[in-house]
Amino acid sequence: MKIGELAKATAIPVETIRYYEKIGLLPEPDRDTSGYRAYRQPHLDRLLFIKRCRNLDMAQEEIRELIRLAKQPEADCSEVDALLARHLVHVRERLKELASLEQTLVRLQAACSDAGTVRECGILDGLSTEFETPRTDDHHNHVPGTHGPGQG
User: Fold this and answer.
1) pLDDT higher than threshold 70 for residue 52
2) What's the pTM?
3) Longest Cα–Cα distance in the chain
4) Cβ neighbours for 140, distance < 8 A, ≥ 6 positions apart
């Protein structure tokens, strides 16, 4: 199938498919006689695997590691379990951060007096001053690859 058909079958944009090829998550397909990429069932299967992992908020390096491990079907699955455990720690940390963010937003919204003007808006005043904001550590954000192996 061509890239547009693959994109439609997976609901993944063409640009993302090309990106996954570029970074090596998706193997490059053969080319047909016209020079167009010719995707096959393994490409579709891999893309759906990647999509499921991304839906679980897994980073690219985690997905790459799972793909590597999947190529060793007879190996002990403890590495897969360990990867998922690390990811679960990350998800739980993010949940704590999001709960803190929610509380900050609730406090900001509560700062709004029902006054009618923007000048009197407690929310804007709170955003303009040092309001208690959730603490963020760079290793807790969700930039792809930031919580891969060895990173909490």
Assistant:
1) yes
2) 0.73
3) 70
4) 90, 93, 94, 97, 146, 147, 152
